[in-house]
Predict the structure of Putative 3-methyladenine DNA glycosylase.
Amino acid sequence: MNVDDLAHAAEAVAPKLLGAVLTHKTPEGTVSIAITETEAYSGAADPASHAYRGRTARNAVMFGPAGHLYVYRSHGLHWCANVVTGTDGIASAVLIRAGRVIEGEDLARERRGPKVEDARLARGPGNFCQALGITAAHDGANLLTGTSVTLSEGEPVPDALIRIGPRVGVSKAHDWQHRFYVAGDPTVSAYRMSPRAKPGPS
């Protein structure tokens, strides 16, 4: 995978990331996860995006260049990982919502807990990061040229298995069809609409 693959709008890149593999190499071992669920977030035109009101210290990585990792804390509890996409200077990123552990399952389970089912090891963005060992320290990491956290091509997902729907749990622009996932995959998270959900601009 190279920067040209990612240098497009988030909603165009998000379905193409299904099947791609995020890998994190640490002294404890290596964990690789094949992506099964994503969500696209753009900038000033997307009320649900962290970049809706412009650049800040928190969201600066979202503005590019493409191929870097944007990591943020959700509800003060969980780290969430995003692949930055698009044109340098314009905010665009794809949230990784879920995946299937394909390497380092023992280490992923050690991080997630001994009783966690295989399908739930990386289901949900917070669990994905926990299984992979991703934290704020990895914000801004270059996924294409780095050596610790990397993004690579995996087993392609046939178009017939890709489903599209509204994003999970967002209160703004909840009706935008910017969530992409692999049909029938047990690692995909359940859809939940925010009780404060409001439709986005058309």
Notes: The chain has one domain: 3-166+177-182. The helical segments are 3-6, 10-13, 105-112, 125-132.
